[in-house]
Amino acid sequence: MALAAIMIGGGAVACGEAQPQPIAARLRPYWEPALEVATGSLDVLRALSINSNAFARGSLSTDQFLLSVEAQWPSISALSQLVIPLGPAPDDQETHTALVAVVDALVEIGPTVRGYRETEQPERLMHLVTLQQRVREQLGAFIEGIGPGLAQDGLRARLEAIGESTIEAWRVRKRAVLVGPYQDEAAARASLAHIVDDLRLSPTNPGWVEVARFADPAAADAAAGEWLLRGVQVRVEDVIDLTFNVTTHRAPERQSWRELLWLERLDFDPTHLAASELGEQVVAVARSGKVASFGADGGLRWTRDMRMPLARVSMQRHGELLAVHGFDVQLLNLAGNQVWPSPFRPDNQLLEQALFDDEGTRLVVRSTNASGVGRVFAFNRQGQVWGPTKSYISAASVDLDKRSGSVAVGSSNRGENQVVLIRPDGNLQQRFGVDGDILQVIFTQEGDQVITLTSAGLQVFEAESANIRTQLRFPATAAARAPRDDILILAGEAGVGSFTLDGTEVWFTPRVRARAVYPMNDYVAALVDDMTITVIRSDGAVLGDATTLAAIRGVAVAPGLNRLFAVSAERQLQAWQLPPVAIPPQG
Description:
This protein is α+β, with helices and mostly antiparallel strands. It is about 20% helix and about 35% strand.
């Protein structure tokens, strides 16, 4: 087997960073644009390096890796346009030659990627890593050639911040499972889109779609058998693949909050995500019943197969208890072991919400159906305590007072909109009408007031007397309470705003139109579209966007750490660490 050991940098994409302003004694007409090319090349190398390391470690699939490389092409093209009109520096031919070699190596990345997509020759993937090494070496030569000064110091620091690692790549023989044949890619998608995520026709087996590769021939045969049971034609072919080993010599220095704190690849399609207050436990679930738990550093802690369909996961504040639920609900402890001998099915409807009290002694769940009509049930660690709620209560939203154990149920039934308060023992405590169809109900921290978000706006009621305290006609479709106080975060088409309980505006950001909001101690994460989470500081200033390469399936936050998590359709779990609030927004 052939072995390639290649030194590359390791880091993450620096997005929205303020560019350093190196000053050289000889700026114009050559050195100013030359330094601009060098700085831009460092940014591209940083992006390529982190993605190469993630690919070699298995966090990125081959297609995701190629997409991440292709995403750098506009930057590479701009650099080539900058370097073309530059003639050799009158006093430094060798340094100019090194700069041209940097851009030439970057430009060669484009045809290398295209060549791999056409042939799937593993040598072309290895060549991508070799090109990055060439870029790094020539950048080093350019930096040394410009001589001592602020320009050299700044560029050298940026190069060292990328880090350094060794990737060893071996060619290995694997067995590929292909299904087909199909007339074209459209026909393949029509047949397989609900089964295969990243679908494309194989360039080496025309008309066939490669669905998996296996090092173990028996595993390939078993997978082929499953496809045969679906009534699909299957082929199993020998292919040459690569296996990698990555050794980090110098870890990259994170230079922006947008650079991932960590990234982990899942072996299932995630549907939802939850995190504990301090990020000690982050849990993703799949519709198939798979559950995976990760620690604060992104390391996999445990996996489980619940053997029941799952839609969501909910977590006790410190991660000590989990409720994984679909049509059934099952409690798991911190180690992933089942608390109940078997799952509960309160009724035959999907369980939309599950809420723990702070101590993990009480769990409240709300079911729903296609009409949005649901019921509410309460459990402790032994099983069901009360429920279902009465037939006149059509549960659209539910909240649990974490201290007293009382439950607030928002009910919209045949034009009758009301909030029903239920005592911990299941008996009626209070009920009162509200204006508009109910979207959300939220207890205040002390549990003495109930916040209702309706189609008519926001209303705050005293829990004991049912007297209305505040009315706010903000056109919101989602609301959340800050983790440490009763500041409200409202989101809708008008933007994202922060308000006190008496309706006083704290801040308002009209440019951010969010579907959901996730407050942290010093930030608010706002899901604005399928692949973008906008982060807003506690003073209303927009910090920037966290983005994914595929549709986001779940968002979670560790409020006490100001840490943000997302799972997406590309089977990736990503974590971002937001900066201390003293650091100003980064454009």
